[in-house]
Fold each of these.
Amino acid sequence: MNPSEKTSGYWNPYAAGVVLGLVLFASIFATGSGLGASGGLARIVAFCERQVTPQRVDRNPYLAPMAGGENQALQHRIVWMILGAVVGGATSGWLAGRMKLETFRGPAVSPRLRWGLALLGGAFMGYGAGLARGCTSGQALSGGAVLAVGSWVFMMMVFAGGYALAYPLRRLWN
């Protein structure tokens, strides 16, 4: 879709922000924890690794609390939150008539390169989420909501990185 084309059927971003804030408040109120995805994905990975090499999971100090011994990695609220986000997003896209397989890319980028760059970027973001002790939703939304200094620094660095890379990478989209 061309950015100059009028988009319809999307929420007003201010209304969506208010609703997201209410969802965050409900999450904290109901579970005592905020929103986040990297912890849930780590639990899913720990579960999968447990199926292949259980003894390695038991010895790993990062994975053992999630899936070692008698711990059930998938029996945690954050795993269900991720499932709800995927099902909810797919349902929303389907109901709005926007659910289709497509690759957004600039004319200078092949679909294969776009997918490769997306996977590379996702790997960097996943590794960074581990170093930062949380993903963007966990750090920015949940941490920012409770005024955690580290979360605010994290978000400043996310925006700084985005601005720093926007100019050199824009040629790929024009």
Amino acid sequence: MSVADKSEKKSGGLGETVSVIVQALLLALIIRTLLFQPFSIPSGSMRPTLLEGDYLFVTKWAYGYSRYSLPFSPNLFSGRIWDSPPKRGDVAVFKFPPNPSLDYIKRVIGLPGDKIQMRGGVLYINDEAVPRVKVGEIDNPDITEVDRPVDVYRETLPNGVSYDTLDLTPNGLGDDTREFIVPEGHYFMMGDNRDNSTDSRFSVGFVPEDHLVGRANVIFFSIAGGASPLEIWKWPSLLRPSRLFTWVN
């Protein structure tokens, strides 16, 4: 083989490698933009449904696409393409309205036109109390984030969606609110950890539909203690095996 042949073969091999890498990056970008986006839970506002250290997949196509579906949120178009409204009870990722560079995750409680209010810790939708039943206590700081038993209540929304909520503080700040009337094109979001959630009752406010990023579907990894998934040596003691590959309800 001549020197030229060797040079051509080496050049061709390098070119193929670069091509494969570029194609893989483009494929990953398409998947992240249009299909699935990994998301880690940064706070305890959705306990007991979601815990800090949960890693989940968010389906991007669930609500259609807006500028916030794209990396860096370029202002290429307004509104949503292939819009599909969220259902009441969905656990959704959205951009924090006062600062869209931040991702939030909460439960969809109020739809456009709804009247939402908390009265004595009970959720009211359009002046009807949402059924709320005490189902027990949790005495596990990994789930509750506090070192004492916490009451757990199961709510059932008008469309039949049920989920558990924590009651950390009876008569807490968010247990009695004014009445909120959800504007058209907006949603009212709340965390399941009712006494430790910055949501639409407070600074989040109403969430515009174009700020929706996607619906939380599957927890694919979970580790306690603020550990990184890369800290494999901590898995034996901190991994939460029972949460792996579970559906988000």
Amino acid sequence: MLQTLEEFWITCWPALLATAAEAYLLGSLNFAIIVTRLLEKTDIRTYGSGNAGATNVLRSQGKLPALLTTIGDLLKGCAAVLLGGLLVQLAVGSLPAEQSLSAEQGTLYVLFGRYLAGLFCIVGHIFPIYFGFRGGKGILTAFGMLLILDWRVALICLGVFVLAVLCSRMVSLGSCCAAAVLPIVTCLFYLTLYRHIDRTAACFCTIMTLLIAVIVIVKHGTNIRRIAAGTENRLSFGAKKD
């Protein structure tokens, strides 16, 4: 029986590698770029802020392309996490009898696969292999990931995002605030609601969300500088299409 996390990594590394690969490739399907190329025959990265994300699509291309982008980026985050968990589940299910896992261990290791998939899906969204490694900032994809991993954490982050955007009318500020609270809420949940889960697992999941938060906030570096200078774009649903 696999007794330690180290044994799990050593035994199941092909499945974990496949999980990271599938998540990255799914994440690289940047729907801001795909949708605008299909509908507008143009590259969203040449408009507005140059970011391949739903906010820039909304400002420069209109509501329908933005809605399609939102749905696509949310669904790919969900799909990557579900597939990552399935790959690990299949791997642990095919172990020989002497290495078989308890039901609790199996659930725990599937959770590892899902968090790993979530991280690499966001990396793929930001650095898409199909589009010259110039993608978006990962917010919608991260939210899709969280809906599968823990819907309560997802709703808390969404609440923080909405509150920050309503107060500032800056999507970038809301995104950074939501990213900042993600690892904090994850850690608190594992210290309180999920106290029965192994501490190593709790640390792993918290570290994964911390890495996601750091990546997202660093990607918003230009926005943060504009916020500090008072020149950041503010959201206006009444703006006309450029």
